[in-house]
Amino acid sequence: MGEEVIISNKQVILKHYVSGYPKESDMELKNSTIKLNIPQGSNVVILKNLYLSCDPYMRGRMKKTEGSYIDSFTPGSPITGIGVAKVLESGDSNFQKGNLVWGMTGWEEYSIVTPTDQNYLFKINDKDVPLSYYTGILGMPGMTAYVGFFEICSPKKGETVFVSAASGAVGQLVGQFAKMLGCYVVGSVGSKEKVDLLKSKFGFDEAFNYKEEHDLDVALKRYFPDGIDIYFENVGGKMLDAVLLNMKLHGRIAASGMISQYNLEQTEGVHNLFYLISKRIRMEGFIIFDYFHLYSKYLEMIIPKIKAGNVVYIEDVVEGLENAPTALVGLFSGRNIGKQVVMVSRE
Questions:
Q1: How far apart are the C-alpha atoms of 203 and 178, rounded to whole Å?
Q2: Cβ(107)–Cβ(11) under 8 Å?
Q3: Coil, strand, or helix at residue 161?
Q4: Cα(134)–Cα(245) distance, integer angstroms
Q5: Cβ neighbours of residue 220 under 8 Å, at least 6 residues apart?
Q6: Strand pairing partners for 160?
Q7: C-alpha dihedral over 70, 170, 325, 25, to 10 degrees?
Q8: What does DSSP say about strands 339-343 and 45-53: parallel, antiparallel, or unpaired?
Q9: Cα dist from 104 to 96, 107, 162, 280, whole Å
Q10: pLDDT tens digits for the chain (347 residues)?
């Protein structure tokens, strides 16, 4: 297959399993090398990584877990996550050299992947939108917002919708989807700047900074005097407890994430679960990997809206693989505004 080509490959390595809040020092940047030749008969794909996605679920992979829906990272190896990449060489007939793809890749300049169900790769056909969008609105977070809101919550026009972590990669879209449907939407976020963003950019009816509220139950009653029909759950803990007090009869909760709990050694209890019974609330957790069969349907809905300017998507892009650990750790203190992306290469 031609002469062997070996090039240098910067990588972000997880040094050890993490307890408590992750720190930049839990990861290190390492120089390695990679062979850009595909062995005869192999079905691997060699990728040049362009954008990497920082997502809250990655925190769970930094500790040793058994029986999770996704494997733990391996200490001493590069961490992995969703990215946008260019195919340099392909032994898989579904991908050709030069294709742009998004899916699971390594936190490194170049990756060798074997496309499987668990290690999915999607070909990028629509290039009239920013490529980084495939880590967000056109990728896993976009699908998460779409599935959680439309499939799990069965929303109807005029219903009341509450979204936590509402300026994040998923929350900002849930709010906009709810507004398109004619719902009343309120979001909670962690700063005044983010409150302003929800109302001015994303069209939320109301928003509040949960850090300034002494009593979340009182805050929710202020915005939802008649109760909440739909809660899109991204944070868990005290917020979930307060929401349960304020749900309407036959309310629906889509549990997408619980970021307030990810770094606690002892997770907080939820005390108001009896309201699931008395109010006949349906709460359903979901993992987006189970819904990728709806991806093409989602793209048909969302791409025209992006091109028409009917959907806004805000990204927080940092440049350079060396800044990836800082970007990832920043998710857990809410440092990012919008979807956190790392640009590894411009192509």
A1: 10
A2: yes
A3: strand
A4: 37
A5: 162, 228, 242, 243, 245, 246
A6: 184
A7: -70
A8: antiparallel
A9: 17, 10, 31, 38
A10: 457 889 999 999 999 999 999 999 999 999 999 998 888 888 899 999 999 999 999 999 999 988 888 889 999 999 999 999 999 999 999 999 999 999 999 999 999 998 776 678 999 998 889 999 999 999 999 999 999 999 999 999 999 999 999 999 999 999 999 999 999 999 999 999 999 999 999 999 999 999 999 999 999 999 999 999 999 999 999 999 999 999 999 999 999 999 999 888 889 999 999 999 999 999 999 999 999 999 999 999 999 999 999 999 999 999 999 999 999 999 998 889 999 999 999 87
* Cα angle 195, 197, 200; round to 5: 110
Q: Let me know how many helices (H) and strands (E) the chain has, helices first.
A: 9, 15
For residue 190, which amino acid is it? G
Which pair of structure tokens corresponds to residue 213?
A: 């509220």
- 141, 176 Cβ separation under 8 angstroms: no
pTM assigned to the model: 0.94
**Rounded-to-integer distance, Cα 219 and Cα 241, Å:** 13
Show the tokens assigned to 225. Answer: 């005097």
